[in-house]
Write a structure and sequence with these properties.
alpha/beta; six-stranded mixed sheet; five-stranded mixed sheet; 15 strands
C-alpha cells in the first residue's frame, strides 16, 4: 500500500511538499485514498461528517480564494474533525502555484502542529490527483483480494484435528512461502517447526537473546525480524520467529498475527494432548503393574473411567513387540493406533526396545486372532530387526506367566526368518532345528536302512508307527500282522545297532525318520566324509534354547521337584515303579508329578513326541539327560 512518500503513479509532477510534518504516523501510514474538496464546498456544505480512514484531504481550486477569514475557520474545523476521527485523515493538502512554500496561514499551521496533522502543498492538477485516487483504489482492491486468498489458504492448512503432529509444520511452510521469509516455531528445549530447515540456525540467536535480556540482537533488530509469543496468557514459552531481508509492512504483521493465533491453538492442542496421553499411559502402566502383582480388582478400578469394561474379563493374552530403541516410541504409537481400543499398550520401563500389549479375552469365542493379525502386519511393516512374541490364553490372575511366555516367544522369533512367534508352547521342535545339518545327521544315522531301496520302502512305512506305539497298535494302524511289524523293527534295530527298548534310541531314530520322510529341504544333503553334526549340536541353537526355556520354566517354578522325577522316569525308560523306588516316592506320587509335567508343558507324555520334547528341553536347560554318556544307546544318539 502507498504512503505519503510513495504514491502509486508514474507522473513526476504528482508530489507533495511538506509544510508541517505532523505526527510520525502521518509520515509513514498507508494512504487509502484522496478526498478532494473546494473552499466553496466547505463554505456551502460545511465540514464533511465523515472521512474515509487513511485518506489524504486535498483542497483544490484555491486560486480565487484566500485562506483567510471564513475559509481559515472552515479549515480549522476540518482539521479538528480529522483529529477527532483518529486515523480518518492522514494529512491536509492545498493546491498552490509552483514555488509557493507556505500557502497556509500561521494560525492553521499552529493548529495542525498541535493536532499532529501534516500539511502539504501540491502544484499538480486536480485531474492527476483523481487518477491517483483511482490507482490507489485499484491497488487496495487487488491487495484485498490477494490477502483474502492468503487467509483462505491459511484456513486450508488447518488440520481436521488440532493435535495433528504435522499441522504446525504445514502452517510454518505456508507462512514462509506467502511472506518469503524464514519461519521458526520453538520451545526452549526443542524446535517444533522450521521452514526452511536452516531457519533454526538463522533465528536461534534472536530467540536466545530475547530469552536472556528481552531484546533482539542488533544484527536482527528492526522490522526484518519478528518474535511473537504463541501463548502469552498461559506463560508458555513457545515462540514464533520470522525474518526476511525486506521489512514487514502492517499487512504482513497482521497476517503474522493471524498465523500466530492458529499456531497458538495448535500448540495448545498439542500440550493438552500430550498431557492427556501421558496421564493415559501412566494409568495403563499402573494397571498392568497391578495385574502383574495379582491385584486384579485394583487394576480394574484404575481403568474403569479410562476404558470402561476393558478389564472385565477373566482371561488375557500378552504380546511383546521388540524393535530398535530409536523407533520404539513410533512403534508404540502405531500399536496403539491399530489395537489400542481392545488392549493395553505401553512401553516396557525395564527394556528400552520392548512394547507390551495386554489383550483381555472375552468369553464370546474371541481368541485374540484379530489383534494378533494386526500386530503381525505391523511388525512386518516395521521390518527387521523388529519381532513379535505372543502368549497363549491365560487367566488374568496369571498375567505374569503370560508375560514370561510372550517374552520367550519374542526372543525365539528374533532368530527366525519369520519374526513372529505366537506362543511357543505349540511350536514344533523339528522346525526349529537347522534343517541342512539335521538332514545330514538323520541320513548318517539311517544310512544302514537306506542302502537297499526295497528295504527302505518297507522301513519308512513301518518304523515310525512301530516306534511311536506298541506293536499291536502299530500293526492295527498299518493293517499289517503284528509279527511283520516286530520283524521289521528288530531288523532295523539290528542294522542301526540300537535297542528300541531304550527310550533314548527310540526318540533318536524316530526323530531321524521324521526328518528324512516328512521334512523337505531345497536339496537333499549329500553324505560326505566329514564328521556330521551331533544331536548335541543340533539342540544348541538359540531357537531351540528359547523353546526349551518356555517348556521348562513353569516346571522349575513348581514347588515339587518335578525335574528330578522326570529325569528318573526317563532314565528308567518311562517305567514308573523303578523310578519311584529310586526317588523314594510312591508310584502314585510319580504319576501325579507326570500329570503336573503334562499340564505345565502342555505335552502328552503318553506319546513319543511328548516324551521327546520333555527329554530334549530338560537337556537343553539343565544339561540332563547327559547325551555324552558312555551308555551304548546314548553313544548312538550322539553320533
Amino acid at each position: 500500500m502507498p504512503t505519503l512518500g510513495s504514491l502509486p503513479t508514474d507522473q513526476p509532477e504528482l508530489e507533495l511538499t511538506f509544510v508541517a510534518s505532523g505526527s510520525q504516523r502521518a509520515q509513514t501510514a498507508e494512504i487509502s485514498g484522496v478526498v478532494t474538496l473546494t473552499p466553496y464546498q466547505l463554505l456551502e456544505d460545511g465540514v464533511p461528517s465523515a472521512l474515509p480512514d487513511g485518506s489524504l484531504v486535498l483542497i483544490t481550486d484555491t486560486s480565487p480564494f484566500r485562506l483567510r477569514g471564513r475559509n481559515a475557520t472552515m479549515l480549522e474545523r476540518l482539521l479538528q474533525r480529522m483529529s477527532r476521527d483518529g486515523g480518518a485523515g492522514l494529512g491536509l493538502a492545498v493546491s498552490a502555484p509552483p514555488g509557493v512554500r507556505q500557502p497556509f496561514p500561521p494560525d492553521i499551521v499552529d493548529v495542525a502542529a498541535r493536532l499532529g496533522i501534516a500539511l502539504f502543498a501540491t502544484s499538480a492538477p486536480t485531474e492527476c490527483w483523481e487518477r491517483a485516487h483511482e490507482e490507489i483504489q485499484q491497488s487496495r482492491l487487488m491487495f484485498a483480494e490477494r490477502r483474502a486468498a492468503q487467509l483462505g489458504s491459511l484456513v486450508q492448512e488447518l488440520p481436521a484435528q488440532l493435535a495433528d503432529p504435522r499441522a504446525m509444520q504445514r502452517i510454518a511452510d505456508w507462512l514462509a512461502r506467502v511472506l518469503d521469509c524464514q519461519v521458526l516455531v520453538s520451545e526452549p528445549e526443542r524446535v517444533l517447526a522450521a521452514s526452511p530447515a536452516t531457519a533454526a540456525e538463522q533465528l536461534a540467536r534472536a530467540i536466545i537473546r530475547q530469552s536472556v535480556d528481552g531484546s533482539l540482537p542488533e544484527t536482527l533488530s528492526g522490522p526484518h525480524t519478528q518474535l511473537i509469543s504463541l501463548a502469552p496468557a498461559s506463560a508458555a514459552d513457545t515462540v514464533l520467529a520470522v525474518a526476511r531481508k525486506t521489512p514487514f509492512d502492517e499487512a504482513d504483521l497482521r497476517l503474522l498475527q493471524h498465523a500466530a493465533k492458529l499456531l497458538g491453538l495448535v500448540d495448545q492442542a498439542h500440550r493438552e494432548y500430550r498431557a492427556a496421553s501421558d496421564a493415559s499411559r501412566a494409568a495403563r502402566s499402573a494397571a498392568v503393574e497391578l495385574l502383574l502383582d495379582g491385584e486384579v480388582e485394583k487394576a480394574r478400578r484404575v481403568m474403569a473411567n479410562l476404558a470402561p469394561g476393558l478389564l472385565e474379563t477373566e482371561t488375557v493374552r500378552v504380546f511383546v513387540v521388540e524393535t530398535q530403541q530409536a523407533h520404539r516410541d513410533l512403534a508404540a504409537r502405531r500399536c496403539n493406533a491399530v489395537v489400542g481400543q481392545q488392549t493395553l499398550v505401553f512401553s516396557d520401563p525395564r527394556d528400552n526396545r520392548r512394547i507390551l500389549i495386554v489383550h483381555p479375552i472375552r468369553s464370546d469365542g474371541d481368541t485374540g486372532a484379530q489383534v494378533s493379525a494386526e500386530l503381525t502386519r505391523l511388525v512386518g511393516t516395521l521390518g527387521p530387526p523388529s519381532s513379535l512374541g505372543g502368549s497363549g490364553v491365560y487367566s488374568v490372575t496369571l498375567l505374569a506367566d503370560a508375560l514370561n511366555e510372550a517374552i520367550t516367544a519374542q526372543k525365539f522369533a528374533a532368530f527366525q526368518l519369520d519374526p513372529v512367534a505366537l506362543s511357543v508352547h505349540g511350536s514344533d521342535l523339528v522346525s526349529l532345528l537347522p534343517q541342512v545339518e539335521a538332514q545330514q545327521w538323520a541320513r548318517r544315522l539311517l544310512n544302514p536302512l537306506m542302502r537297499d531301496e526295497t528295504q527302505w520302502e518297507s522301513m519308512r512305512e513301518t518304523l515310525p508307527a512301530a516306534l511311536a506305539h506298541p506293536y499291536t497298535v502299530a500293526a492295527r494302524r498299518l493293517r499289517l500282522h503284528r509279527n511283520t511289524v516286530m520283524r521289521r523293527a528288530s531288523r532295523a534295530a539290528e542294522l542301526l545297532c540300537v535297542d528300541f527298548a531304550s527310550i533314548n534310541d527310540r526318540i533318536a531314530v524316530a526323530l531321524a525318520m521324521e526328518l528324512v520322510t516328512q521334512r523337505e529341504v531345497s536339496a537333499s544333503p549329500q553324505l560326505t566324509g566329514s564328521e556330521p553334526p551331533s544331536l548335541e549340536r543340533l539342540l544348541g541353537t538359540p531357537q531351540v534354547h528359547a523353546w526349551a526355556q518356555t517348556l521348562v520354566r513353569p516346571v522349575q517354578a513348581d514347588r515339587r521337584d518335578l525335574v528330578s522325577t522326570a529325569l528318573s522316569w526317563l532314565a528308567f525308560n518311562t517305567h514308573v515303579e523303578p523310578a519311584a523306588r529310586e526317588l523314594g516316592l510312591s508310584a502314585v506320587t510319580v504319576r501325579s508329578h507326570l500329570r503336573a509335567l503334562e499340564g505345565h508343558m502342555q505335552r502328552d507324555l503318553a506319546t513319543l513326541v511328548g516324551i521327546r520334547d520333555l527329554q530334549f528341553s530338560l537337556h537343553v536347560v539343565t544339561g540332563q539327560p547327559d547325551f555324552s554318556s558312555d551308555r551304548p544307546d546314548m553313544s548312538v544318539v550322539a553320533s
